[in-house]
Amino acid sequence: MSNHAPIQYVRTPILNLAYEEHGPITGDPVILLHGFPYSPRAFDEIAPPLAAKGYRVIVPYLRGYGPTRFNSPDTLRSGQQAALAQDLLELMDALSIEQAALCGYDWGGRAACIVAALWPERVRCLVTGDGYNLQNIPRSIRPRAPETEHRLWYQYYFHTPRGVEGLTENRRGVCELLWKLWSPTWANRAERYPLSAPAFDNPDFVDVVIHSYRHRFMYVAGDPALESIEEALTLQPPISVTTISLCGADDGVGPAGEVDDDIEHFTGCYERRMLAGVGHNIPEEAPEATLKALLDLLQR
């Protein structure tokens, strides 16, 4: 049985942005943001219960995913962090949402964290997957510990022409492998993957993904229109809004350490929750814990 709502569209300056909406339009807004390589299906067990409690729940398809399309063929298919944040702000503006609760992980968590850091007045509260998701791009060229480097093989793969070709020809296979590596203990992975995989057939998916993983290592230029945001992010601005960070103990991308290295980036009320038996796809693997975190903040 499917829990997802019909797809709707809103036009922003850059995108014809597809989203799913649950609950009353008059409800307090909650925006749920997926990552790479995922889709709104990550929130199938979270959006309906929130809607049942009277919240207006918006679940967008990020740029390069599903039915979301660029308005112009001339727009750079950027996947840089500033673009994701700008898309979130423009979605809120287009839907006349002055302030929303945000919940995101991976790319979506990055967008949510950036908006919370730079435009805190727009964010009621934040649930972030894996803490402070802002990229420190000036430091990206510094080598990391070997056990960390090997987990980033896919990023280095995408830096090469072979990686572009591989993702183009085998996007479903590549993404399914990442699901397996990143969520090694998730029992429902094989059952859930086919529900998200069609979102990767977007004609801009490869270009956006490749740009994202090259830009964060300074191998390609970003969108000049977003340079002011990127400059602000080099300062690693703190997040002052009330936040709960959810961390999967079995995350195959970057397992969370016992010491919370991100706490220094949060200056407001902040809590970190470790989720045993959970990998990288936090809301889909742990919907009850994700829903509880949101409601704990919303109902304060």
Jot down its keywords.
Rossmann fold; 300 residues; single chain; 12 helices; nine-stranded mixed beta sheet; 16% strand; 9 strands; alpha/beta; globular
Summed up, what is this model?
The chain has 300 residues and is α/β, with parallel strands linked by helices. The chain is built from twelve helices and nine strands.
Task: Walk me through what this model shows.
Strands 1, 2, 3, 4, 5, 6, 7, 8 and 9 form a nine-stranded mixed beta sheet that branches. The protein has helices at 47-52, 81-94, 106-118, 146-149, 153-158, 161-169, 171-182, 189-196, 205-215, 227-233, 282-285, 287-298; strands spanning 7-11, 15-22, 29-33, 56-60, 69-70, 100-104, 123-129, 243-248, 270-275. By secondary structure, the protein is of the alpha/beta class. The chain has a single domain, classed as Alpha/Beta hydrolase fold, catalytic domain (Rossmann fold), CATH 3.40.50.1820.
